[in-house]
Amino acid sequence: MDHGAAPAVQAAAGNESTTAPPMEHGGKPLDAVQQANMDATNEMHAPMMAAAIIRDPDLASNCGMIAHHRGAIATAKVKIAMGKDAASLALAEAIITAQEKEIADMTRWVEKYKP
Q1: In sequence order, which residues have a C-beta less than 8 Å from that of residue 98 and are 6 or more positions away?
Q2: C-alpha–C-alpha distance, residues 47 and 65, integer Å
Q3: Does 4 score more than 80 pLDDT?
Q4: pLDDT digits (tens, 9 = 90+) for 42-55
Q5: Distances (CA, A) of 86 to 34, 36, 89
Q6: Would you kindly state where each structural domain of the chain is located, as residue ranges?
Q7: What percent of the chain has pLDDT over 90?
Q8: CA-CA distance, 91 to 75, in Å (whole number)?
Q9: How far apart are the C-alpha atoms of 8 and 38, rounded to whole Å?
Q10: SS3 track for 19-78
């Protein structure tokens, strides 16, 4: 039975490129930090929107959260690459560790799920 999941599962798996083209804010080009954050945030948008239209609520939630967690990891990596505050960098490392485990757990669930 098709629950409209295939595109969202593909998207949640990270099989789509979502890097944003250079943008402007207030008429000025984004700086490196702004662009990196924009790219990191954009990584999750298309997969989350694809998950939002899955009819099965359990599958939709897990696929959406996989994409959301990938976005959290991407923004944490920007922080690690460009940030300076030691406490904030430690938090970013902890976020990556926690989110990677949760992505693995949800991915296993999605792969085994039989509605």
Answers
A1: none
A2: 10
A3: no
A4: 989 999 999 999 99
A5: 20, 20, 5
A6: 30-112
A7: 70
A8: 12
A9: 22
A10: CCCCCEECCEECCHHHHHHHHHHHHHHHHHHHHHCCCCHHHHHHHHHHHHHHHHHHHHHH
